[in-house]
Batch of 2 targets.
Target 1
Amino acid sequence: MSTVHDRSSTHAGGGESFEQVQATDEFQGLKRTLRRFVFPATALFLGWYLLYILLTAYARDFMSTKLIGEINVAYVFGLSQFVSTFAIAFVYSRYAEKRFDPTADTIRHRLEGTVPAEATVKPAKPRKPAKPTPTSTVKETST
Amino acid sequence: MSALAAAADTVDGGQRALTISLFVIFVVATLVITIKASRNNATAADFYSGGRSLTGPQNGVAIGGDYMSAASFLGIAGIIALSGYDGFLYSIGFLVAWLVALLLVAELLRNSGKYTMADVLAFRMKQRPVRVAAGISTITVSIFYLLAQMVGAGALVTLLLGVSSDTAKNITIVAVGALMIFYVTVGGMKGTTWVQIIKAVLLMTGTSLVTILVMIKFGGSVSALLGEAAAQSGKGDAFLNPGLKYGTDAQGLAGKLDLISLGIALVLGTAGLPHILTRFYTVPDAKAARKSVLWAIGIIGSFYLMTICLGFGAAALVGPDAIKAQNPAGNTAAPQLAEAIGQEFFGDLGGTLLLAIIAAVAFATILAVVAGLTLASSSSFAHDIYASVIKRGQADEKSEVRVARIAAFAIGGTAIVLSIYAQKLNVAFLVALAFAVAASGNLPAILYSLFWKRFNTTGAVSAIYGGLLSSVILVFFSPVVSGKVTPGVNGAPDVSASLFGLGTDFSWFPLENPGLVSIPFGFFCGWLGTVLSKEHNAEKYAEMEVRSLTGAGSEKAVQH
């Protein structure tokens, strides 16, 4: 046990317990954000793949219909599995970056008491409502 | 065996010397890198996870190197070359499988685990029973896979170097085993990773080269390539349609079900393979784990697309008779195609050169995969069974890593001895069995533990043992172990297509792939075990859920 969980099991950090964090709306929202994408996406690609396998097994005549030259339905269907895999992977990565990562990072930094590393890497957030930074100051620092 | 002797005659000394030299360059380069990597191998995190300091793209390429085995490189090309379309099924299944890893497993596993698959499964459970089960499953899956690869290496030396004596095969197996033990014990995860990265780059370069030449030859037209392949195959249009190998009309219902069973196991097995799962720990965080899977999908997808060109190219340009003369299963189709296409474009020297390159790539492929398997299984032995069970969590890191190194010797040694004895046996089914166990035992346990609140110790243990045992038992009583006969053609005697020879038949399970039964059974066992037990650790569940989703408290990269 001790080698695996050397951290205290109740305290998530920042004075909160994991159960408290788990109960927050913020965390439950994060969980929903992930599940709302990955469960339907999994059902979609597994169903699509299963359809392909079933057609391969039972709809031989349909799969053997030639479409372009020697290329028949089976190849187009097979290649569409490649396309759908690439597409789902791409869409998921965009979704996760936009919808999931920001909240996950916020909670993590709060619990670990760390400063978001992105703040220093990202070209400082442009929207600073209080101070309308004139462009001249930027020029000053750059010269 | 006469076919092998014939193969021996066709390999000339120049090509053999060239293949060996290229391979020696690969070995020397990887040994140097492994020794360099060993300087930063102080802690357990270094040994098991390469200090978690790889970048996403690096790990993605390494995953490709870990995953694309000789079975998929030589095997799929061979199946397509001899049976046409049906070989493509493997390519598709092996790729789509990565979506399971991307969407459901990689990031959450990276955040909640440490070194092994069992870290995630045992997180909110009683440590000992779950770790023992996960350790047994990890070592079993890895050894099945390892044996298939090493016996393959023995056969490959005959085919690619033209040396058919048993001594030569034994020397090859021992050499492959010794190298893999060296990579793992000296280089740990970092050394193994670089072997896999180099191999992946070589494999992609080699196959791209052959693919480009094939496409130039056919004027960029896939249709023309398919047409020529069908014409040369002697099977006409049927060669381009599904059904020559799997689910043929002659096989009846069992054949169709077997095809579906294979398809499901391919897709669900990958995300349960321990040597793949441990690769997700080598990056600093979940985002990098996601990125590595995206890279892996790109590389693996491109590779499996090229298998179409390799397989149909071999059928069109080498022809099934010439392929079967060298290896009845078609395992030499890709190297033979390399020689033919090289000759076509650059003359005899070009043919020899390209063949030597592809042959060396095939050896590199085997080495990279076996190293990954040995590392995963020895890590699991040291971390799950030795440290958590035998020492009850009281082992210090140093002794744990020492035990992992000893385990790598023991597992590697066992694999060498078993492979030498298994050489004459038909062990091709072992890869399919490894996928079936991974999909039936490991995957249910992983998914339940990441997504099902109620899941508990009894459930985890039931899922793993239920999936593992049902897969192994069903395969044992299937035609791949006994009772399958390949009828002799033209008066030649019948040969056994099973592990056991002719005359032994105790099979009663009709499918060669158990997945259709064993995967639902594994999920069912996990559910049943869970509802039969009242255990629930709400506190640890909260910790696991928060940690797996946010990464708070997850293992950090080692600073050197």
Target 2
Amino acid sequence: MRSPFAVVLALATALTLSFLILPIVAIFVDIPPGRLLDGMNDPAAVDALVVTLKTTLVANIVILLVGTPAAYWLATNEFRAKPLLVTAVELPLVLPPAVAGIGLLAAFGRLGLLGGTLDVLGLSIPFTQLAVVFAVMFVASPFYIRAAISAFESIDPALPGAARTLGAGPARTFFRVALPLASGGLGAGWALSFARGIGEFGATIMFAGSLQGVTQTLSLAVYEQFDVDFDVALAIGAELVAVSAFLLLAVKLVPTWTRSTSPSTTLSAPFASR
Amino acid sequence: MDTLDLTLDHPLRSFRLSVAATLGRETLALVGPSGAGKSSVLRAIAGLLGPERGRIELGEETWLDTDAGVDLPPERRSVGLVFQEYALFPHLNVRRNVAFGGRERVDELLERFRISHLAHARPGDLSGGERQRVALARALARDPSVLLLDEPLSALDAHTRNVVRGELAELLAELRLPTLLVTHDFEDAAALADRVGVIVDGRILQVGSAGDLLAAPADAFVASFTGANLLHGTARPGLNGLTEVVLDDARLAYSTDEVGGRVGLAVYPWEIALARTEPADSAVNHLRGDVRSLVALGNRVRVRVGPLTAEITAASAERLALREGEPVVASFKATAARLVPLA
């Protein structure tokens, strides 16, 4: 006879798992696989996939190329305003998406802060594909930058120091020592940021709109199609589930040695190893 | 031949680091307790720490001159720095670690340090002694003009330490580079260095050969750091030209050193003889006390008698049948009683 407490635990676990898994399973089994594939071939779905791939690719390249050196600089310099700057980087994480959208409009919109300047340059960002990229970068990059700062900060400072005394300049030290040692943390942070970017909805719909083939991403298309053709909405949902599941697995499988490579952790027990 | 010339002045947490030294083809060891500023000296020479004021020159080449605004980055200073815990790159194998400093001599260095068979191993899989050899090989791969060693033996266990100490002494003798080594262990310093400087709170108290420091410690700290017993007392001129010291426990001791006032009386454990009864020999200092502890160290025994620690042979301890709690007489000559003034 099991104790009542064990039964409660088992019930709670069963309830949690079925509640979380059921909607995801439902996406795949609600309609026959044939219709799911047809849905994926719907022009709206294909357009959304192309828009998403393009904007996500550009946004993530910029996040990695600009965010990584910025995070390295923030991690390796100490100054009084640093906590303030790091908080500023983290703020978009907790901002409601609608606020992010209105903020982007206020900054880059026609009547926004930089609107006049951009107008002179012949640039109009809102409701273009560039606006999608901006929205994704604004809401997703903090996930990456925050993880990158802590990945760089957790490197034993003796290691870059050793690289310098061995003749490596700051750039070589960054590429040969800091970057490989932080790669585990960078990869995990990037996967989170990528997932957030793929799922981006609120800021995009306010700042970029939902124009099929232009600014309508997969996430927006799910919402749009749900009124038009539920099967297509399900098909797009299935695509997003696949991408997210793949990312989650990738994060879990990031090689662990790159994350715990401080020599002090190994040297605290110098003879434990072979 | 290039000499390394340095003067440094830099505020550390609770004191100022204020150090000057000149090194030819020799090994200078800076010995001192943890937090004395030893590692900061090495970091400043390597360029990893920018001192508030200072000048560092290697021969004609100026690495640092704060007055003239010269401060070469670490990669432009020809130093080989071996970090305390070696700081091997965990993501690179042994060969790549060594090649990081310079590719030309990798094979020769792997051979020289007997680590060729470990070329493809990662640092995480090496023993402490192996890591130390990789760190040395890597530091030398750049063909440095100055070698800096930060506590090179402290990460090793006692057995490996003795072996590595011998190897390191041979290596330093062979390289004949200006070498600055820091350690908190006087024995390591004595075994590895031509000259030893005792550094406390950012200042070098005394520099000399290990023998000089043992024979004439400049102050109480140097004396106790070199392993001497240190008894506090007040010195005054006594009979026969000796100095009489009234120890703080009211006992009397005599020294040939001529110092007055508050003093520390330093006597090394191996200069103290033990006997069951007061011997009629040339020693003038006889202190009675009970044996407080006996610790065997191979063929020697460390015996604590009252405030003193004596080191005698295991055979003598056997012959005297020493036991804890029993009274003995500790004797040492007035010439072995070194007096150092106390502040």
